[in-house]
Specification:
Layout lengths: L2 H5 L25 H5 L5 H21 L7 E4 L8 E4 L8 E4 L11 H16 L5 H16 L26 H21 L8 E4 L9 E6 L3 E5 L5 E5 L3 E3 L13 E3 L8
Parallel strand pairs: 1-3
Antiparallel strand pairs: 2-3, 4-5, 4-8, 5-6, 6-7, 7-9
Length: 268
């Protein structure tokens, strides 16, 4: 479907295949994802994509009771959240934020963008992550797949999202299972790397913003270590991300983030 038709709200159901399910070749659907993702993800393009996606999803949202108007904005790349929904006390429409770009640059996967929008749109009706919210989100994902808005084959299983286990029986279940498997493998890798490190050992990380910074291990946790930084701040680092600093012993090295201690940031 052309972008012009999408903006005019003309949303016919996609043709069905031999099994009776909608035909959704990769990169196709109500939104011309290939056309969008060939363009640089500048602020104006991100906003235009979200406006088109929100319009395409409008019939699905209305049918399932998300009839309240809401504003939609593109989220920043340098945030831990994939999306958010803010209710305004003055009674004005809620503000839904969806991050369209990866932290390292470039577009997020099309299915990931659509899934985030549906997740936050469900919060327009139910703010908490309670049973009613997950029930609504499961219905939204199923309906969005039927309309070619959400494509499970173009989602990103590497993105950790809240409540993956609650999406069983939806088109997102395959991505949820893949995400869980990646999380399990990452945990096992970190657990195996713990044997290389001891409290008091100087370490650093090979890549990222903290590359070359000297830390001292304070204590070992289940799959991460608590370290003291040079400025007195403490951080939690996955064990497999560490390499020895000057005077340290041999360890494991890979790419990954350094997380400051404190309250966790809610994602999506």
């Amino acid at each position: 479907m052309s972008l012009q038709l999408a903006f005019e709200g003309i949303l016919p159901l996609p043709p069905k295949d031999a099994t009776g399910r909608p035909e959704k070749p990769a990169g196709t659907g109500v939104i011309d994802w290939r056309g969008w993702t060939r363009r640089p993800p500048d602020a104006a393009t991100q906003q235009a994509l979200l406006d088109a996606l929100r319009l395409a999803a409008a019939p699905v949202l209305k049918r399932l009771g998300v009839s309240r108007e809401f504003q939609i904005r593109a989220g920043r790349a340098n945030t831990a959240r994939f999306g958010s929904c803010r209710q305004n006390r003055d009674g004005s429409p809620p503000v839904v934020t969806v991050r369209c770009v990866r932290t390292e640059g470039g577009w997020r996967a099309p299915g990931a963008i659509a899934a985030t929008l549906l997740h936050e749109a469900a919060h327009v009706k139910y703010m908490s992550h309670g049973p009613r919210f997950w029930g609504l989100l499961r219905k939204l994902l199923a309906a969005a797949e039927r309309h070619g808005i959400y494509l499970p084959s173009e989602d990103d299983p590497s993105e950790p999202r809240r409540g993956d286990s609650k999406l069983a029986g939806t088109p997102a279940a395959v991505m949820s299972d893949a995400t869980s498997e990646r999380r399990r493998q990452r945990y096992q890798t970190n657990r195996a790397a713990m044997d290389a490190w001891e409290a008091g050992q100087p370490v650093t990380v090979a890549k990222g913003p903290a590359a070359g910074t000297r830390f001292i291990i304070v204590k070992k946790m289940r799959s991460r270590v608590l370290v003291d930084g040079p400025d007195g701040r403490r951080f939690v680092i996955a064990a497999a991300f560490l390499i020895p600093a000057a005077g340290g012993e041999a360890g494991q090295a890979t790419k990954g983030p350094v997380l400051p201690t404190g309250p966790s940031v809610a994602k999506q």
